Amino acid sequence: xxxxxxxLKTCVLPVLFVCVFAASSLxxxxxxxxxxxxxxxxxxxxxxxxxxxxxxxxWSEKRLGFEVGWVTNGESGRVGGYSINLRTHxxxxxxxxxxxxxxxxxxxxxxxxxGGPNIIYRKSDRDDxxxxxxxxxxxIGTKVGGQGFGGAEVTFKAVPQLSVGGxxxxxxxxxxxxxxxxxxxxxxxx
Length: 190
Known about the structure:
- The chain has 190 residues and is mostly beta strands.
- The protein has one domain: Porin (Beta Barrel).
- Strands 1, 2, 3, 4, 5, 6, 7, 8, 9 and 10 form a 10-stranded antiparallel β-sheet that branches.
- It is elongated.
C-alpha cells in the first residue's frame, strides 16, 4: 500500500494537477462548436519499447470520455539453433476528462487528463531449425498495471472529423514504473 501511495504522490497526481490547472486557465475560451463523439484511429507508444496499435475514443457532452486501445510489439533473435520470437500485447482502457475546449483561428484544442488499468500479455515461440518438430509456444505471463496521463487533441477546422494528439504519462506494471509518450490519430465517425 505504501508503494501505491508513493507512486500516486510522485507520478500520477502531479501530471493530473498540471493538466487540470492548464485546462482550467483556458476555460474562458470560446466553446467547442464541432461535434466529436466516436473516433477510431491508431496510436504509437514509446515507453521503453516502441509499440503500435489501434484506439477508439468516445466523448460525452459532459466533458467526460472513455478510450480503449490495443498495442503490440514483436522482437526476434537467434539463440543456438533456435529462432526466438517474443510478442507483447497490451490493452489499455482509460477514463478521460477535459475541462476546456480552446478555439483558435484554424484549430480546436482539447486538453485532457486520464487514467485506467493496463493489461499486458507476453508470449514467446521457438522454432527449432535443426529438426522437423515445428514450433513451441511459451506463455510468459499476464501483468496488470495502471496509468495516468495528460495531453491534448488537436482538430483542424478544415477537416473537423480528423484529430491528432499526444500525451505524456506514467505507467506502472507490477514492480516497474516508467514514463511514456504516446501519439494518436483519430477519425471521428460522428
